[in-house]
Every structure is written in structure tokens, then in C-alpha cells.
Amino acid sequence: MIFRELLEKCDKKLVYEHLEKLFFTNDKKNIEKTFSKIIDEILKKDIETKPDFVVVLSHNEENGMWSVYGYEPAKNCRFVLDYVPWVKWANAHVFLDIKSPQVSLEKIVANILYEMTYSGFSEAEIEKKKEKLLNACKDALRSTRKIYKKKLPKWLRGGR
After folding, report:
1. Which residue of 17, 18, 40, 85 pairs with 110 in a disulfide if CB–CB is 3.0 to 4.6 A?
2. What distance separates the 2 farthest-apart alpha carbons in the chain?
3. Rounded distance between C-alpha atoms, residue 149 and residue 61, angstroms
4. pLDDT in tens, 49-79
5. CA-to-CA distance for 40 and 132, rounded, in angstroms?
């Protein structure tokens, strides 16, 4: 089932209760207000956009936590979904890892929403953080190249 369908079928009140636990808060009103907006926004996304990945939930028996990650079958690759556009989340198929215990639809939805909002509670906020991270990576790469050229002996840089 795709995430959009799970959102349409779940009991939102139970999802909000699970989110309260994930965020370690008793602020029911704020959780409901924040996530009802997010759910509405996700459900308005273009239904034609087809992601090249699936969303997988996996349970860690040692700590009781759920992991949510992307899996790209064509590349046999797992990856984090922190900065993935919400339209792709909305239309991604969701799978429960075969080693994981059975879990309610609401708990699945809550864990996915928690992961989606890990870097922000709006796509604009997430995009700003993504740009900041990319710029920091570019700066680090430039600095590393400068150090590499200036500080390392020629023979370490591949020269004789």
C-alpha cells in the first residue's frame, strides 16, 4: 500500500497518540495541530509522481525502536529519507521488514511521520536545512582540497 492510502485509512487520533510518545510530549493540542496540517499537505500532493524507492519499517528488538528507511530496488540500496520531498513519500509503497512484529497501521503512520519531520515540520524548513548541509559539505571539500595541495608532501599527493 502507498503511504497516501495509509494516511487515508488510519485513525488520526491514534496516530497523534503514538506521535506524542515518539516526541516524548503530552502536548496533545500541538501534536494534533502540527500533524493534521502535515497530513493535509501530504494528501494534496500530486498523485502521479512515482518515486524510485519504497519505504521500509524495521523493528529493533534490542531497544524497541522502529527504523524507517528508503530502499531503492534497482540499486539494491538503503538510504535515509530525511531530505526526500514529501510528494515522493506520499506516493511510496510502504513495507514492513519481514523480521518485524505485526504492528498497527497507526503506529506505522506515526513512525513514518516522525521520520519525515526529523529535519523540520515543513518542506521549506527541511529545504533550508538541506541547503545549509550541502553548503557545509562544499566548504569542507574546498578546505580539504586546499590543505591537500598546500600541506602534504608532493610524494603523498601522487607525485614523485
Report:
1. 18
2. 68
3. 48
4. 889 999 999 999 999 899 999 999 999 999 9
5. 27
